[in-house]
Design brief:
Blueprint lengths: L10 H11 L5 E7 L4 H8 L21 H12 L6 E12 L3 H9 L1 H10 L5 E12 L23 H48 L1 H16 L5 H14 L9
Antiparallel strand pairs: 1-3, 2-3
């Protein structure tokens, strides 16, 4: 079931229907996208959760999973009284991907992004390949949300110091951004003052007697020698001869 479960309205019923035809001890491979990818996390910090035509936020996705939430969902199925089997779930592969946006943010704020990665190793994962095995209900099956493949426990400890460090770094980033915004606003304010001053100067020029005289001259010139006319070309040639009586300088 490659890229199927996240598109379903009723994924539990779908999985149960498949397992009715699966032999005891049989395997089922499933791939799921990881909503805990760093790209999603950074966009959420910016207040964005926008769907697209493909990727983690595909327009047709109805379900979203992290690795631990997916395993907890499987455990909830194993606890259902109406089934006489259990599902053993192992992660057999993780596909990693970090977007250009996330790479840019990491170059810009390396300390903050590094803190995120230290807190969770899921952030660089784009997709998981999971393997189900149908086993008898009386077989000892460990809670899948307690174990990674290989027996490593999921880290659910709340590291107060790490969290505090992340918060402090985020506060620093926000202060830096606010300082930058304030600086840009001051620059914009100065530019607006300069623009208003220049507009005032232009208004005074347009209203001056000198500008009226210049305007009359240009209107007289354009009326007597229209742009593109033969008379205007003659005047231009005559003016060049007056400026350069010996003729234009020849370049070697």
């Amino acid at each position: 079931c490659a890229d199927v479960i996240e598109h379903l309205k009723w994924p539990t019923e779908f999985l149960l229907n498949i397992n009715r035809t699966l032999k005891m001890g049989g395997y089922l491979l499933v791939s799921i996208p990881n909503i805990a990818n760093i790209d999603i996390v950074l966009h959420l910090l910016g207040g964005k959760f926008n769907y697209s035509n493909l990727g983690l936020l595909d327009n047709t996705h109805l379900r979203f999973f992290t690795q631990s939430s997916f395993l907890e969902w499987v455990d909830s199925i194993n606890q259902m009284a109406e089934i006489d089997y259990s599902l053993k779930c192992d992660k057999i592969q993780e596909i990693k991907y970090i977007s250009d946006f996330s790479n840019t943010m990491q170059r810009k704020y390396p300390e903050v992004i590094d803190c995120f990665f230290q807190k969770s190793d899921e952030l660089s994962n784009f997709q998981y390949i999971m393997r189900f095995q149908k086993v008898a209900r009386n077989d000892p099956v460990q809670q899948t949300h307690d174990l990674f493949p290989g027996g490593e426990r999921i880290a659910e400890k709340q590291d107060g110091q790490s969290l505090e460090r992340v918060v402090n770094n985020l506060d620093r980033v926000m202060r830096d951004l606010k300082t930058e915004v304030d600086s840009k606003e001051q620059q914009i304010s100065k530019l607006e003052e300069t623009l208003a001053l220049n507009k005032h100067l232009l208004d005074n020029i347009y209203k001056s007697d000198a500008w009226k005289i210049v305007g009359r001259y240009f209107r007289f010139r354009d009326g007597l020698f229209p742009l593109g006319s033969r008379r205007r070309k003659w005047v231009k040639v005559l003016w060049e001869r007056i400026r350069h009586p010996a003729g234009p300088k020849k370049t070697r």
